[in-house]
Amino acid sequence: MENYKNLEEILEKFKLQENLRYVSPYKPLEKDTNSNFFVSVEEGTFIKEKARSYEKTFWEFYMLWVCNRIFEKVSRKNKDLQVKIKVPEPYAIEKNENLRIYMEFIPGIPIKKYSEKSKEWIDEKVIKIKKKKLNLINLLAFMLGVVDRIKSNYYIFHGDMDFRHVMFDFKNLIFSLVGFDKAFVYLPEYNIDKKILERAITHEREKTLANLEDKFSHLKSYGEMVYFFNKGRDSPRLKNINIENYVKEFYQKYNIIPKIPKSVLDRIKEAAEKY
Known about the structure:
The protein is an alpha+beta fold. It has one domain: Transferase(Phosphotransferase), domain 1, CATH 1.10.510.
Protein backbone atom coordinates (compact mmCIF):
# COMPACT_ATOMS: atom_id res chain seq x y z
CA MET A 1 0.00 0.00 0.00
CA GLU A 2 2.86 2.36 -0.91
CA ASN A 3 4.26 2.69 2.62
CA TYR A 4 1.33 4.77 3.85
CA LYS A 5 0.09 3.55 7.20
CA ASN A 6 -3.69 3.39 7.49
CA LEU A 7 -4.16 4.20 3.80
CA GLU A 8 -7.86 3.33 3.90
CA GLU A 9 -8.39 5.75 6.79
CA ILE A 10 -6.50 8.46 4.92
CA LEU A 11 -8.56 7.93 1.76
CA GLU A 12 -11.74 8.23 3.81
CA LYS A 13 -10.75 11.81 4.66
CA PHE A 14 -10.25 12.62 0.96
CA LYS A 15 -13.60 11.09 0.05
CA LEU A 16 -16.03 13.02 -2.14
CA GLN A 17 -18.76 14.37 0.14
CA GLU A 18 -21.59 14.10 -2.38
CA ASN A 19 -21.95 12.09 -5.56
CA LEU A 20 -21.81 14.22 -8.69
CA ARG A 21 -24.59 14.21 -11.22
CA TYR A 22 -24.21 14.46 -14.98
CA VAL A 23 -20.49 13.71 -15.18
CA SER A 24 -19.33 13.68 -18.79
CA PRO A 25 -15.98 13.13 -20.53
CA TYR A 26 -14.01 16.31 -21.17
CA LYS A 27 -11.68 16.69 -24.13
CA PRO A 28 -9.06 19.39 -23.50
CA LEU A 29 -7.94 21.64 -26.33
CA GLU A 30 -4.38 20.47 -25.70
CA LYS A 31 -3.97 16.69 -25.70
CA ASP A 32 -2.73 14.91 -22.59
CA THR A 33 -2.20 11.25 -23.39
CA ASN A 34 -1.38 10.42 -19.75
CA SER A 35 -4.69 11.53 -18.25
CA ASN A 36 -8.42 11.27 -18.72
CA PHE A 37 -10.65 14.20 -17.87
CA PHE A 38 -14.28 14.56 -16.88
CA VAL A 39 -16.46 17.48 -15.90
CA SER A 40 -19.64 18.06 -13.96
CA VAL A 41 -20.70 21.49 -15.19
CA GLU A 42 -23.69 21.66 -12.85
CA GLU A 43 -21.49 21.30 -9.75
CA GLY A 44 -18.55 23.20 -11.25
CA THR A 45 -16.23 20.23 -10.76
CA PHE A 46 -13.34 19.05 -12.93
CA ILE A 47 -11.96 15.51 -12.64
CA LYS A 48 -8.45 14.41 -13.55
CA GLU A 49 -7.88 10.66 -13.76
CA LYS A 50 -4.39 9.26 -14.14
CA ALA A 51 -2.59 5.93 -13.74
CA ARG A 52 -0.10 6.86 -11.02
CA SER A 53 0.86 6.18 -7.42
CA TYR A 54 -0.92 7.40 -4.32
CA GLU A 55 2.25 9.30 -3.46
CA LYS A 56 2.09 11.39 -6.64
CA THR A 57 -1.68 11.84 -6.38
CA PHE A 58 -1.53 13.04 -2.77
CA TRP A 59 1.30 15.36 -3.74
CA GLU A 60 -0.55 17.09 -6.57
CA PHE A 61 -3.62 17.46 -4.35
CA TYR A 62 -1.43 19.02 -1.63
CA MET A 63 0.25 21.47 -4.01
CA LEU A 64 -3.10 22.49 -5.50
CA TRP A 65 -4.47 22.99 -1.99
CA VAL A 66 -1.58 25.19 -0.80
CA CYS A 67 -1.19 27.18 -4.04
CA ASN A 68 -4.94 27.77 -4.29
CA ARG A 69 -4.83 29.52 -0.93
CA ILE A 70 -1.75 31.57 -1.77
CA PHE A 71 -3.13 32.78 -5.09
CA GLU A 72 -6.60 33.46 -3.64
CA LYS A 73 -5.09 35.68 -0.96
CA VAL A 74 -2.93 37.57 -3.45
CA SER A 75 -5.84 37.99 -5.87
CA ARG A 76 -8.05 39.47 -3.13
CA LYS A 77 -5.31 42.01 -2.32
CA ASN A 78 -4.95 43.03 -5.98
CA LYS A 79 -8.50 43.54 -7.25
CA ASP A 80 -7.32 46.63 -9.15
CA LEU A 81 -5.62 44.28 -11.63
CA GLN A 82 -9.15 43.47 -12.92
CA VAL A 83 -8.04 39.93 -13.79
CA LYS A 84 -8.51 37.24 -11.14
CA ILE A 85 -5.58 34.84 -10.71
CA LYS A 86 -6.56 31.31 -9.76
CA VAL A 87 -5.32 27.82 -9.02
CA PRO A 88 -8.10 25.19 -8.87
CA GLU A 89 -9.16 24.20 -5.37
CA PRO A 90 -8.95 20.41 -4.94
CA TYR A 91 -11.97 18.68 -3.41
CA ALA A 92 -11.39 14.94 -3.22
CA ILE A 93 -9.40 11.86 -4.27
CA GLU A 94 -11.13 8.71 -5.44
CA LYS A 95 -9.99 5.31 -6.69
CA ASN A 96 -11.83 4.48 -9.88
CA GLU A 97 -10.15 2.57 -12.71
CA ASN A 98 -7.23 4.87 -11.84
CA LEU A 99 -6.81 7.53 -9.19
CA ARG A 100 -8.92 10.65 -9.61
CA ILE A 101 -8.54 14.16 -8.25
CA TYR A 102 -11.74 16.18 -8.06
CA MET A 103 -11.15 19.92 -8.24
CA GLU A 104 -12.73 23.25 -9.01
CA PHE A 105 -13.60 23.80 -12.67
CA ILE A 106 -12.09 27.05 -13.91
CA PRO A 107 -13.16 28.33 -17.35
CA GLY A 108 -10.53 29.26 -19.91
CA ILE A 109 -8.35 27.93 -22.70
CA PRO A 110 -4.58 27.29 -22.78
CA ILE A 111 -2.94 30.58 -23.71
CA LYS A 112 -0.95 28.93 -26.51
CA LYS A 113 -4.27 28.65 -28.41
CA TYR A 114 -4.39 32.45 -28.65
CA SER A 115 -1.24 32.28 -30.79
CA GLU A 116 -3.42 30.76 -33.51
CA LYS A 117 -5.64 33.86 -33.71
CA SER A 118 -5.18 36.60 -36.28
CA LYS A 119 -3.50 39.90 -35.40
CA GLU A 120 -6.76 41.71 -36.16
CA TRP A 121 -8.66 39.47 -33.72
CA ILE A 122 -5.98 39.98 -31.05
CA ASP A 123 -5.95 43.78 -31.43
CA GLU A 124 -9.73 43.91 -31.02
CA LYS A 125 -9.52 42.26 -27.59
CA VAL A 126 -8.66 45.11 -25.25
CA ILE A 127 -8.90 45.42 -21.47
CA LYS A 128 -8.00 48.28 -19.17
CA ILE A 129 -5.51 47.42 -16.42
CA LYS A 130 -4.65 50.21 -14.00
CA LYS A 131 -6.02 52.82 -16.44
CA LYS A 132 -3.93 51.43 -19.32
CA LYS A 133 -5.51 49.70 -22.31
CA LEU A 134 -3.77 46.45 -23.19
CA ASN A 135 -4.47 44.20 -26.12
CA LEU A 136 -4.72 40.47 -25.49
CA ILE A 137 -1.06 39.53 -26.06
CA ASN A 138 0.28 42.35 -23.93
CA LEU A 139 -2.27 41.42 -21.27
CA LEU A 140 -1.05 37.80 -21.29
CA ALA A 141 2.56 38.98 -21.00
CA PHE A 142 1.57 41.29 -18.14
CA MET A 143 -0.27 38.54 -16.25
CA LEU A 144 2.61 36.11 -16.77
CA GLY A 145 4.81 38.73 -15.13
CA VAL A 146 2.38 39.03 -12.21
CA VAL A 147 2.38 35.25 -11.75
CA ASP A 148 6.17 35.11 -11.99
CA ARG A 149 6.49 37.71 -9.23
CA ILE A 150 4.11 35.70 -7.00
CA LYS A 151 6.06 32.51 -7.68
CA SER A 152 9.37 34.21 -6.90
CA ASN A 153 8.09 35.93 -3.76
CA TYR A 154 6.60 32.79 -2.21
CA TYR A 155 9.15 30.32 -3.63
CA ILE A 156 6.66 28.44 -5.79
CA PHE A 157 8.08 26.13 -8.46
CA HIS A 158 5.45 24.96 -10.93
CA GLY A 159 7.51 22.26 -12.61
CA ASP A 160 5.77 22.27 -16.00
CA MET A 161 5.33 25.95 -16.81
CA ASP A 162 4.51 25.71 -20.49
CA PHE A 163 1.58 27.43 -22.14
CA ARG A 164 -0.63 24.33 -22.00
CA HIS A 165 -0.86 24.76 -18.24
CA VAL A 166 -1.52 28.51 -18.24
CA MET A 167 -5.17 29.27 -18.94
CA PHE A 168 -7.06 32.48 -19.69
CA ASP A 169 -10.77 33.16 -19.91
CA PHE A 170 -11.21 36.50 -21.67
CA LYS A 171 -14.95 36.69 -21.00
CA ASN A 172 -14.67 36.32 -17.21
CA LEU A 173 -11.12 37.70 -16.93
CA ILE A 174 -9.68 34.69 -15.12
CA PHE A 175 -5.99 33.80 -15.46
CA SER A 176 -5.19 30.38 -14.03
CA LEU A 177 -2.48 27.77 -13.59
CA VAL A 178 -3.13 24.03 -13.78
CA GLY A 179 -1.01 20.85 -13.88
CA PHE A 180 0.69 20.75 -10.47
CA ASP A 181 2.14 17.23 -10.68
CA LYS A 182 5.73 18.49 -10.37
CA ALA A 183 5.09 21.60 -8.28
CA PHE A 184 6.82 22.56 -5.05
CA VAL A 185 6.30 25.33 -2.50
CA TYR A 186 9.24 26.02 -0.22
CA LEU A 187 8.73 24.52 3.23
CA PRO A 188 11.70 23.96 5.58
CA GLU A 189 10.63 20.44 6.54
CA TYR A 190 11.39 19.16 3.03
CA ASN A 191 15.06 20.13 3.42
CA ILE A 192 15.50 21.56 -0.08
CA ASP A 193 18.21 24.19 -0.50
CA LYS A 194 16.49 27.55 -1.02
CA LYS A 195 19.18 28.72 -3.44
CA ILE A 196 18.65 25.65 -5.63
CA LEU A 197 14.91 26.33 -5.62
CA GLU A 198 15.53 29.99 -6.52
CA ARG A 199 17.57 28.89 -9.53
CA ALA A 200 14.82 26.48 -10.61
CA ILE A 201 12.20 29.25 -10.36
CA THR A 202 14.45 31.63 -12.30
CA HIS A 203 14.81 29.01 -15.02
CA GLU A 204 11.01 28.86 -15.24
CA ARG A 205 10.99 32.63 -15.77
CA GLU A 206 13.49 32.28 -18.62
CA LYS A 207 11.40 29.49 -20.11
CA THR A 208 8.26 31.64 -19.91
CA LEU A 209 9.97 34.49 -21.76
CA ALA A 210 11.28 32.05 -24.38
CA ASN A 211 7.75 30.70 -24.84
CA LEU A 212 6.40 34.22 -25.29
CA GLU A 213 8.90 34.80 -28.08
CA ASP A 214 8.27 31.41 -29.65
CA LYS A 215 4.45 31.51 -29.57
CA PHE A 216 3.57 35.18 -29.96
CA SER A 217 6.37 37.10 -31.71
CA HIS A 218 4.44 36.91 -35.00
CA LEU A 219 1.70 38.95 -33.29
CA LYS A 220 3.72 41.33 -31.10
CA SER A 221 7.37 42.32 -30.89
CA TYR A 222 9.32 40.41 -28.29
CA GLY A 223 10.63 43.64 -26.78
CA GLU A 224 7.09 44.90 -26.23
CA MET A 225 6.05 41.63 -24.59
CA VAL A 226 9.08 41.72 -22.27
CA TYR A 227 8.19 45.30 -21.35
CA PHE A 228 4.69 44.27 -20.26
CA PHE A 229 6.00 41.14 -18.55
CA ASN A 230 8.27 43.33 -16.41
CA LYS A 231 5.41 45.77 -15.77
CA GLY A 232 3.42 42.80 -14.52
CA ARG A 233 6.25 41.74 -12.21
CA ASP A 234 6.27 45.22 -10.67
CA SER A 235 2.50 45.38 -10.19
CA PRO A 236 1.20 43.07 -7.43
CA ARG A 237 1.09 44.12 -3.81
CA LEU A 238 2.46 41.18 -1.86
CA LYS A 239 2.36 40.70 1.88
CA ASN A 240 3.88 38.09 4.10
CA ILE A 241 1.95 34.81 4.06
CA ASN A 242 2.69 32.23 6.72
CA ILE A 243 2.46 29.15 4.52
CA GLU A 244 3.08 26.95 7.56
CA ASN A 245 -0.45 27.85 8.69
CA TYR A 246 -1.80 26.28 5.50
CA VAL A 247 0.26 23.17 6.22
CA LYS A 248 -1.21 22.92 9.72
CA GLU A 249 -4.71 23.42 8.33
CA PHE A 250 -4.13 20.68 5.77
CA TYR A 251 -2.88 18.26 8.40
CA GLN A 252 -5.81 18.98 10.70
CA LYS A 253 -8.22 18.22 7.88
CA TYR A 254 -6.54 15.21 6.24
CA ASN A 255 -4.21 13.87 8.94
CA ILE A 256 -1.34 13.55 6.46
CA ILE A 257 1.54 15.63 5.11
CA PRO A 258 2.35 14.06 1.72
CA LYS A 259 5.84 12.83 0.91
CA ILE A 260 7.61 14.64 -1.89
CA PRO A 261 7.97 12.31 -4.91
CA LYS A 262 11.41 11.72 -6.38
CA SER A 263 10.09 12.97 -9.73
CA VAL A 264 9.52 16.40 -8.17
CA LEU A 265 13.01 16.50 -6.66
CA ASP A 266 14.46 15.50 -10.03
CA ARG A 267 12.50 18.24 -11.81
CA ILE A 268 13.75 20.91 -9.38
CA LYS A 269 17.34 19.73 -9.78
CA GLU A 270 17.04 19.61 -13.57
CA ALA A 271 15.62 23.15 -13.76
CA ALA A 272 18.23 24.55 -11.36
CA GLU A 273 21.07 23.04 -13.39
CA LYS A 274 19.73 24.64 -16.58
CA TYR A 275 19.89 28.13 -15.08
